[in-house]
Design brief:
The chain is mainly α and 120 residues long. The chain has helices spanning 6-36, 49-73, 85-115; strands at 43-44, 47-48. The chain crosses the membrane at residues 6-30, 51-73, 93-116.
Length: 120
Amino acid sequence: MASRSFPGFFIGMLAPFLIWAAHFGVVYGINGMVCARRAEDAQLLGFPMSVALIGIATLLALGWVAVLLVKAWCGAGPGKHVGAADPRRFARWFAIAGSGAALVAILWVGMPALMVPACG
């Protein structure tokens, strides 16, 4: 069986958390830019700009993590190239648990940003 480098394996296991961290930065970056540029009244797709951009970022992050969750659930996650069964099982469990936690964290960050005004 082909072996995979440890950094690639480790990043694959941490991918849901990395997506959440990127989403966190994007959400607060959008709010910061909207407030710094005084663009609270700007509209995008019929919604305030910050709400539309954060909504898009949240949907993208949720979709990406959901794909990782399905891949891990089907056994195609980060441990698929590992030779021994125990690390594969652990990597699969970690990817599934991490994806679930990341989905909750992304909603936890995205929902208040969608409900509260950007500069309120």
